[in-house]
Design a protein that fits this description.
five-stranded parallel sheet; seven-stranded mixed sheet; YpdA family putative bacillithiol disulfide reductase; Bdr; Ferredoxin-NADP_redctase_2; FAD/NAD-bd_sf
Length: 326
């Protein structure tokens, strides 16, 4: 066990890295631990994904993000965050999962899959991409059901059902169709949802011309090895099927927050308790940063509007330590 750190940051996504940059700037000792790879959530985005935001809105620590196009893609973002980590020599331990957080006198003991650390403060910036929202229907555990979509080539000449109404579902439907898949969308709502402005007309036109079949106000009710049942307003429809891409969204790891003692609301929103001025939770010295702050409302906080969390947190910690945050 090493000396007591000022801050241990859980999560090496963009906001976790931003917290590390602010801690370094303030002269505070810190370590970032991440259970997966660097910016693990972004790594799991679809291969050809393009961000809605411009490059400058994805910057952290004031470090310029140069992009070929106005809207950077996944590969450019991964390159940017690697470059930031290396150029700033951020202290990051990857593939190291936090297993326990225990209070001890005026600090915390943080146990991981590889080591144990002591820290006066903890920042939780774990994002939400690790746990998919399940359909909870028969057959969902079949190997052909995927809650993550990556490369469209895999689905060439396959009968694919895409579930969802927003960006992830739109990208999966269009990309797999363009690579030769027979695509059917199942949309719970009566119309398509919030989709990038350059994607939505494309998808609407493909549906209108019949290239992509879409069932609105409908739900998948059962999945079998070679077919699926869709409950539509007109009744049950059974269609042949090879793969199901369930683009139903994801949720934060509430069990981890509960395990360490962070209060959550009892409603279905599961909002964690924190002070919006300092980002400190009900646990003294434990802070939240990024999308985790929104509970189940995972579309409230993004990289561009939660970068300020890093500044708020480090400013508060620095003031408590009597350090001037530059």
């Amino acid at each position: 066990m090493e000396d007591i750190l000022d801050i241990l940051i859980i999560g090496a996504g963009p906001i976790g890295l931003a917290c590390g940059l602010e801690a370094k700037k303030a002269g505070l000792s810190y370590l970032i631990v991440e259970k997966g790879c660097l910016v693990n959530s972004l790594y799991n985005y679809p291969l050809y994904m393009t961000f809605f935001s411009t490059a400058d809105r994805l910057e952290i620590g004031g470090i310029p993000f140069a992009s070929i196009h106005a809207k950077p893609n996944r590969a450019e973002a991964l390159e940017y965050y690697r470059r930031v980590t290396d150029s700033e020599q951020l202290k990051v331990n990857l593939f190291e999962e936090v297993t326990a957080v225990t209070p001890e006198q005026e600090h915390y003991v943080i146990s991981t899959s590889k080591a144990q650390y002591r820290a006066k403060h903890i920042v939780i910036a774990i994002g939400f991409y690790g746990i998919p929202n399940l359909l909870n229907i028969k057959g969902e555990n079949l190997p052909k059901v995927r809650h993550y979509y990556f490369d469209p080539h895999y689905y060439y000449r396959q009968k694919v059902v895409v579930i969802g109404a927003n960006n992830s579902a739109a990208d999966a439907a269009l990309e797999t169709w363009r690579k030769g898949a027979d695509v059917t969308m199942v949309v719970r709502e009566p119309e398509l949802g919030s989709i990038k402005y350059w994607t939505k007309p494309d998808l609407e036109n493909r549906i209108k011309e019949g290239s992509i079949k879409a069932y609105f106000s409908s739900n998948l009710s059962e999945i079998r090895e070679h077919e699926v049942d869709i409950q539509t307003p007109e009744g049950k429809v059974t269609i042949p099927n090879d793969f199901v891409l369930a683009m139903t969204g994801y949720r934060p790891d509430f069990s981890f927050l509960q395990k360490i003692g962070v209060n959550l609301t009892n409603d279905n929103k599961r909002y964690p308790q924190y002070d919006p001025d300092t980002m400190e939770t009900n646990l003294p010295g434990v802070y939240l940063a990024g999308v985790i702050c929104g509970g189940m409302d995972t579309h409230v906080w993004f990289i561009e509007n939660s970068r300020e969390h890093a500044v708020k947190i480090i400013r508060n910690i620095a003031s408590l330590a009597g350090v001037e945050n530059k």
